[in-house]
Amino acid sequence: MSTPGLKIDPLLQAVVAPLMPEEYQQLRDNIQRDGLLEPITIWAEQSGTILDGHNRYAICQELGIGFRTKALSFLGIEAAKLWILEHQVGRRNLTDDQRAIIWNDIREQRAAVSRAAAVVKARDAKANPAPVDDTSSPTKPRTIAAVVAESKIPERTLRKAQKLKKTNPDLYERVRSGTVTLREASKPKKNDLKFTEKDYYARIGRGLAAAFSGTDARLKELISIKKSEWTPEADEGIRCLLLNLKEVTKKANGYATRLKAVLKKNAATPSDRRRYEDCECEDGNECAMCLDYEKRTTIWEPELP
Q1: Long-range CB pairs of 167-173, under 8 A, 24+ apart, other chains included
Q2: CA 8, CA 16: separation in Å to the nearest integer?
Q3: pTM
Q4: Looking at residues 182-188, what average pLDDT do you find?
Q5: What is the pLDDT of residue 35?
Q6: Cα–Cα distance for residue pair 42/8, rounded to 1 Å
Q7: Are strands 49-52 and 40-43 parallel, antiparallel or unpaired?
Q8: How many CB atoms lie within 10 A of CB 30?
């Protein structure tokens, strides 16, 4: 056996579920004792690029142990990724949650392979208008129902995996690594729940509206002050109050700017994002967009008297 220098493609390596530390150590001990019994699989069209055996290759390089390789052919990287996923889901000691994650990836990767094949077919048809027999192998089913039947994983579990990948990719990868269960990852935190309660926002709104409730009457008295009532103390006091109001306005505008950025960042659709970008509220004057929303919202709390 030889020790050829192989290539590692980060995109292909990322497809593989990482080994837990104890699994890696067990693999290392086995290779050190028995040598590498299984060849490392490489991509024939990408000379020396590893498809399966990244950990084994690293251990062999570390220990100076020779190994064999086996080359497989694929039309493109999407097909290579699909082979890696389908290969690993049936050979590793994976938990049910890890298998659900990988099967969800398989479902998505089959769709990616189909799209890539369609692009190649369209390009070939354009270059050669003459009809040709399509002898390519059909893509395996990629619907949820088909994957459920093939994987024997409950549909509910697969849908949980699908949702988690969209909403929290970081947790999705932690489930893949085996450090978190799918149930733990899918369980909303207390902080997440409060953001779904309308009253949470209403309480903040009432608090903001009440900020002036204790001083409102006295501010109105100052606005109505007559020249005959004017004193040096009134001059200095109102100047100080203007500074106070300026600080309050600055803080309010700062929160308003940051909250608008939150709306824009989490906008569900491009049209929503454009709508938030069109907001033109300045110096406490509401723009037409915000005034319209004020009329329609069910959370809005009117200003306290």
Answers
A1: 172/101
A2: 12
A3: 0.56
A4: 83
A5: 94
A6: 10
A7: antiparallel
A8: 14
Which of 186, 189, 193 is closest to 157 using CA atoms? 186
Indicate whether 261 pLDDT > 70: yes
Contact 301, 205 (CB under 8 A): yes
Q: Is residue 250 predicted with pLDDT exceeding 70?
A: yes
pLDDT at 286: 59
Question: What span, in angstroms and rounded, lies between the C-alpha atoms of 163 and 154?
Answer: 15
Could you identify the residue written with the tokens 């600080």?
247
Who wins on pLDDT, 277 or 105?
105
The label of the residue with tokens 């129902």 reads: 145
The per-residue pLDDT for 105 is 93
d(CA 118, CA 120): 5
Task: Determine the pLDDT at residue 136.
Answer: 45
If one compares 127 and 109, the residue with the highest pLDDT of the two is: 109
Question: Is there a contact between 102 and 157 (Cβ–Cβ < 8 Å)?
Answer: no
Q: Where do the domains of the chain lie, and which CATH numbers do they carry?
A: 1-73 (3.90.1530.10), 94-129+138-187 (no CATH), 193-296 (no CATH)
5 or 166, higher pLDDT: 166
Distance CA 108, CA 115 (A): 11
Answer for the pair 198, 299: CB distance below 8 angstroms, yes or no: yes
- Beta strands 40-43 and 69-72: pairing type? parallel
In 3-state terms, what secondary structure has residue 41? strand
Q: Which residue has the higher pLDDT, 212 or 82?
A: 82
Cβ(212)–Cβ(219) below 8 Å: yes
CA distances from 278 to 263, 274, 294, 300 (A): 12, 6, 16, 21
Strand partners, 291: none
Q: What is the pLDDT of residue 161?
A: 92
